[in-house]
Model the fold of this input.
Amino acid sequence: MKKIIAIMALALGLAACGGSEKAPTTYVNIGTGGTAGTYYPLGGAFAEIWNTNIEGVNATAESTGASVANVNMLQKGDIDVAIIQNDVASYAENGVELFENKVENIRGMATLYSEPIQCITTDGSVKSISDLKGKKVAIGAIGSGVYCNAVQILAEAGITEKDYKPQYLSFAEAATGLRDRQIDAAFIVAGVPTSAIVDLATQRDVKVVNLDKELADKLKAKYSYYTDYEIPAGTYSTQKEDAQTLTVQSMLVVSSKLSEDMVYNMLKSMYENTDRIKAAHKVGEFIKEESGLEGMSITLHPGAEKYFSEKGIK
Done:
């Protein structure tokens, strides 16, 4: 009996010394967007990469109302990482547009890819933005960056809210509305091709509305984060011509509460596993280390600053 007690005591002592202890679990909640958009599958890929390659991480991607909603959730501490538009990140850090106060805990991690502003219609009478007067137009879910872009474009085209019928819809809801002819047009800000519109083009004659040069130039002069973008003919099966538009950048933001080592390792594992990102969505091919600071609109997290500095990327 004494021998048994001694062996048990020795085993307990070894356990107490930490011989079999695992690293503490770090829970990382990732805010994405609607399930029919681009952010959601990318968030799932990031979660899988971080869970597989960073010891002690338990990352989960969740569907949200996208950019603005993600910033609010980050500010409250409900999420730790988010995919948002770089213009919305700038609004948040500076406390302008949709944010009455500065969001103090938002930090930049990396920019990802261009997000063209796509004005999609199935109405043959809509040839330009000015033709949206009197139409039912989806301008994004409340709490999304799409709403900001849509309102800015319409306002610069001289279209006020009384001139059209705004519909506050997610990507999936907007695609359904276009399919069922319940709305006439929809603004969607996402990497191309956007899956919801690819599917819609198999059922309806989809067209990307052109932003004329004069309107685009006015917007670029007023908002520095906009740049020119061309959506090639054939991006969607029924799109016969190239469409000129503007683009913002998608980006990863993180809470300032995440450690330097954690953010550094998240970036390292992400760029070492880009094949998994490409498998999640076609835009993954544009997510590259060398372009990770292009369009960075807010203060970098120290972990990101260390990573890109080591790589000589500015």
Q: What stands out?
A: The longest strand covers residues 106-121. Residues 1-20 have pLDDT under 50 and may be disordered.
